[in-house]
Write a structure and sequence with these properties.
Layout: E1 2-5, H1 7-13, H2 22-32, E2 35-39, H3 40-72, E3 74-76, H4 83-96, E4 101-104, H5 108-119, H6 132-142, E5 149-153, E6 160-161, E7 164-165, H7 167-175, E8 179-183, H8 186-196, H9 202-207, E9 224-227, H10 230-240, H11 244-275, H12 280-289, H13 294-306, E10 310-312, E11 317-319, H14 322-328, H15 333-343
Parallel strand pairs: 1-2, 1-5, 2-4, 5-8
Antiparallel strand pairs: 3-9, 6-7, 10-11
């Protein structure tokens, strides 16, 4: 089974296959020895669109914080990952998926074939941009070996007649011994894979370490810093009079909720320091023995990576400052020894 996802599905809808069925698809492909086809054009677009999506989300966050600052009269520090961090994250995610990836670099041959297809107005061309990108994707599919079972997941109408893959595309692939089926979303494909493999234990699959485990919700609440100027505070107070009590209650609840993470940052940092260079499975497993859920641990670890205390190599975590590790590792030595003894 070979799966190819267009950019909207891979980046916008599933956040690089981290949500909306993306993680389940990765597990199923691993269990069935399936592969992800990532043509060169899609690899480039995955990274570029991740940068664009992050830029849009940063703008949304900035606007929300601006409103919040005005309402409560406080300025919030809000360090958000810049373009370089976002790009690095996208590349590392793609690298983590490499064991499943069937790469197909852009070549002059593919460019020429796609260009000819586009000029001849053959599917999957479109009226708006001649569908050159889609033609590149399709030419990559046609280069697969005879006998390949391919699943194309795309929102692009150029590939479809209604909800079915266009008949001329199906016939063209079939003439080369390739069977291609199209899907408009990940959920339908996941459902098909589950039905085709009824003996697979989904609960067991969920326990298998994914190449990368990142929580779908990693929003952080920054602590208040310097107040706004007095004039701005007065204006904010006047504007917020009708809802001041509600805003204060929300701020209080956020502060209380954040308290449970205050000690986890240091504890998880110390665990990484003590374990040396733990694999993701080893670290999350050890933290689970200490009753720290994987989702909570994932949030904290991601924050430590973003702030530069920890480096994510793709399969392992490393402290960026060895001297700091020597200081904090002893604080959890007895605790970890006890946990490992308990597991043994």
């Amino acid at each position: 089974m070979i799966v190819v996802c267009d950019t909207n599905v891979f980046v916008r809808e599933t956040h690089l296959l981290r949500k909306k069925g993306g993680q389940t698809l990765v597990r199923l492909l691993r269990a069935t020895q399936g592969q992800l086809l990532i043509p060169g054009i899609l690899y480039r677009e995955y990274v570029e669109q991740t940068l664009e999506a992050a830029k849009e989300e940063r703008a949304t966050v900035d606007k929300a914080f601006s409103v919040l600052e005005t309402l409560i009269g406080l300025r919030y520090d809000r360090p958000l990952p810049g373009d370089e961090s976002v790009k690095q994250g996208a590349v590392e995610r793609l690298r983590a998926l490499e064991p499943l990836t069937l790469a197909d670099p852009l070549t002059q041959e593919i460019l020429a074939l796609a260009g000819t297809r586009s000029l001849e107005n053959r599917r999957p061309t479109s009226k708006t941009d001649h569908g050159f990108k889609d033609c590149l994707i399709w030419e990559s599919v046609l280069r697969l070996s005879a006998g390949s079972e391919v699943r194309v997941v795309s929102r692009d109408k150029a590939f479809f007649d209604g909800d079915e893959l266009a008949k001329e595309l199906t016939a063209e692939a079939q003439a080369r011994g390739i069977r291609v089926v199209g899907y408009r979303n990940i959920a339908d494909l996941v459902s098909e894979l589950q039905q085709a493999n009824p003996t697979l234990d989904l609960t067991a699959l969920e326990a298998v370490e994914l190449p990368e485990q990142v929580s779908e919700s990693a929003n952080e609440v920054a602590s208040p810093a310097a107040p706004l100027p007095e004039a701005a505070q007065a204006t904010a107070a006047q504007a917020a009079v009708p809802v001041a009590a509600d805003i204060e209650e929300v701020a209080h609840q956020l502060a209380e909720a954040q308290k449970r993470f205050d000690t986890l940052d240091l504890k998880i940092l110390a665990y990484i320091a003590y374990l040396g260079s733990p694999s993701k499975k080893e670290l999350l497993g050890t933290l689970a023995l200490n009753q720290i859920p994987a989702g909570v641990a994932g949030n904290v670890i991601e924050r430590l990576v973003i702030t530069g205390f920890v480096r994510d190599t793709g399969n392992h975590y490393l402290l960026t400052d060895g001297t700091m590790g020597e200081v904090i590792a002893p604080t959890v030595e007895e605790e970890i020894i006890a946990l490992l003894a308990k597991r043994a």
